[in-house]
Amino acid sequence: MSFNSVTRTMKRQLKNASTIAAAICLLAVPVQAAHYFTDPPLDKGWKLFLNMQYEDLTALAVKSMGKGKRNAPWYELIALVNYHRRFPDASIAAGTAVRLEPKNAHALSTYAFVSRGSQSEAVHLAQKAVALSPKEGRPHAVLALCLMNMNKVNEARKEIEEAVRLSPTDFDVNRAGTIFYANTLEEEKARHFYDALAKNFPTSAYVFWSRAEFRKDNSDPSGALSDYSRAIELNPKNQQAYAGRAQLYMFLKQYAKAAEDYTHAFNIMKSWPVISSRANAYMEMKQYDKAIADLNFCIWQMSRTGKDDHSYSAYGAGSKDYRDCWLRRMIAYQYAGRDAQVIKDGEEMIRHEPHAVKCHLLLHASYMRQKKFNEALKHLNALISLDPEIEEWYNLRSEVYRKLGRIKEANTDAEKASSMRKTGL
Q: How many other CB atoms sit within 10 Å of the CB of residue 268?
């Protein structure tokens, strides 16, 4: 691919990307080198990156990119953004930066970081960066993370210590310290680096969001709430901070606050996973109609059929998320007392996925409440044919047989279940 075609591709992607959605959850590596800051738009772009203002960064990149060498740091920013969005072209952008400045340690570091190739190749790229700039901490920090990914922890530790010695206040070096020590379960050391970042970069939404994630995962909910709120204060359009705080509210069983934060997150970026999570909050609050409406939206978004959200998509058979939302909606219908809808959705799903155990169970329960015992029996027979070694299936079928007046068969199943229980099957 030529440089011009890469440039056109990247600009087209930037223009089409309304939001850069993914959290920047690892290391933001290269673009702090002093010579990059001679270009004021790039300096502004880096600050937008740190503050997780991705839409503004996108617009600035499109406006600022032109022909020539000065595009390299923009491509590095694009590479990092695309990497965390899980776009496959992150390596293309980083590779373009390297082609523009093949002896730039920072461009090589970025390429190493976002590389979708082998881990050994990433280490090789990072080593080249270190060789080009051995007295700078950032390349050592990237090499440390690349070595860590290969489980070479002792070598990685030496590199992170060297990075800190060379550049003790550098953003990237401190961020690498948080990653390395969190992964080696040295929580106090990781906390030290997070606190250093918060002290030295007090206006970075990213810093407070990332420390909130760390605190949430390390049993400090009050600290995490404070950091999420600070990240939102610094960037009110910070979807990741709203979503993270909502997850924490769910853990704290503050479901109304969780639903409110999920709504804020969705208003920033129309993303079905956020609405799927909000449905969980509504379920906990027993607001089943709202949960159903949210799950309807998710199913429609994932269906890829253009049909209504009650036609089970063939795509669903290949998507765990689609199946999960379909089953959760059946559960919501069940709690709302809408068994007829459970049955309609369940039979639609079974038609496409006859081995769906949870669906058979939900159908059995709804048919039992409607006193349609023969239909309930059909689904228990299906369950037993799928796995004849489950005691519960025989107990349930015994109950159905009794409702049908088939006492001999009911007793046989009850004895079968009792025998399985005694033998530990």
A: 20
